[in-house]
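Quick start: read one record
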Amino acid sequence: MPLIEDVVEVLGTTYKGRPPGTFGKAGVFSFNSNKIITTSGGGMLVSDDAERIAHARKLATQARDPAPHYQHSEIGYNYRLSNVLAAIGRGQLQVLEDRVQARRRKPVLSLSKGSTTTSRPSATCPVSPPCPKPPGAATPVG
């Protein structure tokens, strides 16, 4: 069974030295407005399978066949990012590490029994030394 990774929340991390999206046949990232990199919508598909990427690109561009007229042999969609939104996303990649570090400094949110709040600044993970990681946890890049 092929593995398609949902790597929406782990951009900027690694696991055993490998970035997300490289463990399965493909990885899918989201660039919605609540993500660490945002283009207000859309996302990214990654794979080392050139045929899979070419087919995904065809489907994302209305599945138009290479013909002099509009011909479609399968159903496609218009799922492309505009050039402007893609440029905004690419620009944010240059500050990805800064954003990852800033997110790590935010308070940990948890709800303990009897608690009236979810924000617990005392549970904030210090940047140095790093917090212990649970077994199998992703290791941040950097």
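The first helix runs from residue 50 to 60.
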